[in-house]
Amino acid sequence: MKIIINLVIIFTIIIVPTSGSIAPEFWNATYSAGNFTEDSPYNASLFSAFSDLVSMAASKTFANVTVGLSESSRVYALFSCQHDLPLHVCQSCVENATSDILGLFYPNPKEAIIIYEECMLRYANRMIFSTMELEPYDNDCNIIKYYSHTTEIKTAVKQGFETLIDQATNSTDYFAVGGVKNVVMDYDLYFLVQCTPDITKEECNTCLLHALNSTVASCGSDGRLSGHTMGPSCIMRYDYNPFFYSEVISLADMGPPTTTSPPLKYDKHDRSKDTLGLIFSIFIIIVLVILIFAIKNRVCCR
Hints:
Elements: H1 2-19, E1 26-35, H2 41-56, E2 62-67, E3 75-81, H3 87-100, E4 109-116, E5 119-124, E6 138-141, H4 150-169, E7 175-184, E8 187-195, H5 201-218, E9 227-230, E10 234-239, E11 252-253, H6 268-301
Parallel strand pairs: 7-11
Antiparallel strand pairs: 1-4, 2-3, 3-5, 4-5, 6-9, 7-8, 8-10, 9-10
C-alpha cells in the first residue's frame, strides 16, 4: 500500500503542474549583428530588459523598454502578443521567449527575434521602436493541399485579408479578425491581422500588404487551409480552426460547400487533453495491477 501512495504522490507532482498550462508553439527565430559575452554590461542590460518585459506583460499585450547607460551596453527590447490574448497567456508566452531566445544561438547575438504562435519578442543594440520592418519574417503553411480547390481558397484568403487590412489600419489598435464560411466542403476560414501599435497607419498598411502577398503566394495559391506570415511589425494568419479569442459576429459566405470528404481537423489543445487522458489511464492501470499483486501476496502469506 505504501508503494501505491508513493506512486500517487509522484503522479501528482509530475502531471498536475503541466495540465494547467500549455507551452507556446515555437515558430521561428533568427539573429543578426555582433556578439556579446556573458560577463559583459550588455548581458546585464539584456537580462534587466527581459525582466521588465515579463512584468509589463502582466498588464498589456505590447511593450518596449530601453536599458543601458552607454551606447555599447544599451538594449532596446520589445514584445508583442496577439492583441486579444488573455494577459496571463501573453505573460506566459513572453516569459518563455525570454527563457528560450538566448539558448537558440551561439555565441550570444546582440540582435535577435523569436516568434511563437501567440507572441513575438525581439531585442537589439540599435533603435527598433516606432520603425516598420518587413524582415525577418516567418512564413508557413498547412501541409495539406487541396489541388482541386486552389481558386476558391486563394479567393477567400485574398478577399478575407483585404477586408481585415482595411479594418485594422482604420482602428486604434491595428487589429482585426474575421472569417469566411463554406470555402471548401464544410470548412470555414478564420482570419487575423495585427500591427505593432508603435508604427503609423500607413506603415501598418504597407506591412500587411507585404504579408498578404507572401501569404497568398505561398499558402492561398497552393490550396492550403491554413497559413501565416509573422514579422517584426505585423502578423497575418488564417486557419480552418478558430484560433483567436475575439468573437466574430458573422462570417462572409462563399456559397454552398463542395461535397469532397474533408481532412481530419487538428487542434493542439485537444491533443494535449487527449495526451493527459492517456497518461492518467495508464497510471490507473499500473496502480490496479500493483494493488492486485499486493492483495495476492498478502493472501499467500496467510
